[in-house]
Structure formats: structure tokens, C-alpha cells
Amino acid sequence: MSDSPPFDPAFFRQVLGQLPTGVTVVTAAGPAGPAGLAIGSFGSVSLDPPLVMFMPGKSSSSWPVIEAAGHFGVNILAEDQADMSNLFASKAEDKFAGLEWTTKITGAPIFESALAWVDCEVAQVVEGGDHWIVLGRVLDLGVQRDDAGPLVFLAGKYGAFAPLG
Ligand SMILES: Cc1cc2nc3c(=O)[nH]c(=O)nc-3n(C[C@H](O)[C@H](O)[C@H](O)COP(=O)(O)O)c2cc1C
């Protein structure tokens, strides 16, 4: 059996794009400054031990900085932060220019405008095709806003969450 897919990449993306995700910015403090990228593939894995996961692509330039740091901070974005998602989805030279952030335990940048944050150490990295599957052990976490809902991403577009009823 061949490893190449029996369907074209656009169709793969169209089908899998039917499932909405939240949007996070995953960061780390590197020796030459902070690094970070927009990540939709973030999720919780385990409560005991407390584990979360995300999947950076192998072409990510931020991932090697995060891996070398051995830690990462997850900023769960609010519905008014699509601009921040676009900034961290870019290949801009210095994505952090002009931004302010705080740090928790690991030193990874946490933005005060994010809905919630999770501070982690890298626990395990598994190969997943053209991505890495990164498991992080949660060291600390918190919610810092109650005036907004989460930023949602579906079929290439941003939206907000609207409860039924
Ligand atoms: C909403 C959204 C979700 C994304 N989710 C992921 C993801 O889960 N994994 C990934 O590798 N890239 C994801 N990206 C794309 C990266 O943010 C993008 O490739 C970025 O340029 C990587 O930056 P870097 O090369 O500095 O790491 C996402 C982009 C957006 C807008």
C-alpha cells in the first residue's frame, strides 16, 4: 500500500475543516527572544497526570525554539483576538514587536488579553506524518477574562460561539 493519500489535499482540508476548533497562540522563551505560533490543534489529554497536546507542523520555525526551551505557554484566544491569531499565523520577523506579555512559571509569554492560559513543560514528542504531536505536562493554568467568549475557527473563517437556546 502506498503512503500517498488517495484524495487531493484540498478535499482533505475541506472535509476536516468541517470541525471547528478554538484558537491558541503557543509560545516559548528562547535564548534569542520569544517564539510563538497560532495553533488550532490544541486540546486536553489527561487529568492525572495533567497533560495537554498540540501539533506543530514540521515546517514551523517556532517549534524548534519551543522544543529547545523544553516548555511552552498556551494562550487561549478570545473572540476579539482574530488579529493576534493572524499575526502569529504569519512568518513575520518579530511577531512580538510592540506586544506586552507576562510570564508564569516557565517564562513563556502569556498575553493578558487572552481568555485563558496554560503553562507547560514538554513531556513527549511523537511523529505524526508532516506534524509533531507534542504532549505537555501542565504546571499551572488560569482564566483571566470573563467578558468574552472563545475565538472559533471553522472552514478557514473566524467566528464566535453562540449557545443553542
Ligand atoms: C486558526 C489557525 C490555526 C492553526 N493551527 C495550526 C496547527 O495546529 N499547527 C500548525 O502547525 N500550524 C497551525 N496554523 C498555522 C501556523 O500558525 C503558521 O504556519 C505559522 O506561520 C507558523 O509560524 P512559525 O513558522 O513561526 O512557527 C494555524 C493557523 C491558524 C490561522
Secondary-structure map:
Blueprint: H1 9-16, E1 21-22, E2 24-30, E3 33-39, E4 43-46, E5 51-54, H2 63-69, E6 71-76, H3 82-88, E7 116-128, E8 131-143, E9 151-154, E10 157-160
Antiparallel strand pairs: 1-9, 2-3, 2-6, 4-5, 5-8, 6-7, 7-8, 9-10
Bound molecules: flavin mononucleotide.
List keywords for this structure.
mainly beta; 7-stranded antiparallel sheet; 3 helices; binds flavin mononucleotide; 39% strand; Pnp Oxidase, Chain A; globular; 165 residues; 3-stranded antiparallel sheet
What can be said about this structure in brief?
The protein has 165 residues and is mainly beta. It has three helices and ten strands; from the N terminus they run αβββββαβαββββ.
Task: Give your account of this protein's structure.
The longest helix is centred in the first third of the chain and has 8 residues, at 9-16. This protein starts with 8 loop residues before the first helix and ends in a 5-residue tail after the last strand. Helix content is 13%, strand content 39%. A seven-stranded antiparallel sheet has the order 3-2-6-7-8-5-4, with helices on both faces. It has a three-stranded antiparallel sheet with strand order 1-9-10, with no helix packed on it. The chain has three helices and ten strands; from the N terminus they run αβββββαβαββββ. The chain has 165 residues and is mainly β. Residues 23, 37-41, 55-57, 60-63, 85, 88-91, 153 line the site of flavin mononucleotide.
